[in-house]
Amino acid sequence: MNLSVALLAALLIGILSGLRALTPVAVLTWAAQLHEVQFEGTHHSFLGSKIALVIFTLAALGELVRDKLPNTPSRTEFSGLIPRVLLGAFCGASLGLLSAAVAGYPAITLGALAGAAGAVVGCFGGYQARVGLRKALGVPDIVVALLEDLVAIGGSLLLISRF
């Protein structure tokens, strides 16, 4: 995998983190647990542990539920944006780490930066898309929110399965 492809993947995983902060990292833990990706011997090896699997899976499921509640703050507020950026950077670095053997060491650092940038794009772009689709389709917010869930889950599965 060349550096350009690794950075594109990191950007895309960041965008998905901008939609649902915990979904991509939960999918990464499942992929590590199922030995679809290998983090052994790296700083990300904890992703292959059962405790990480349980924690990130439950947190991601909780986020999917919490997103639908009426009192949930906007993802574009500071308290919603920061976790997305941090987790986007982490997931981008993880994909950079997976591709580092081919793309070289800068893929990890550049992957983190691309993941963080993607999270900002996903956060604000996802918010605009959600509001726009709700208005354009004339449907309740939950319908668009469920579509967004499918994009975040399906996109994470598809992207991570390529590693």
Textual characterization of the structure:
Helix 1 packs antiparallel against helix 4, helix 1 runs antiparallel to helix 6 and helix 4 (78-103) crosses helix 5. The protein has one domain (3-161). The protein is mainly alpha-helical. The protein is built from six helices and no strands. The longest helix has 32 residues, at 106-137.
Helix content: over 70%
User: How many structurally independent domains?
Assistant: 1
How far is the first residue's CA from the last residue's CA? 9 Å
Q: What low-confidence regions span 5 or more consecutive residues with pLDDT below 50?
A: none
User: Count of DSSP E strands?
Assistant: 0
What summary fits the major beta sheet? none
What would the average pLDDT be, to the nearest integer?
Answer: 93
Q: Could you state the order of secondary-structure elements as H and E?
A: HHHHHH
- Indicate the structural class: mainly alpha
What share of the residues does DSSP label as strand, in percent?
under 5%
Tally of individual helices: 6
Shape: globular
Integer-rounded radius of gyration: 15 Å
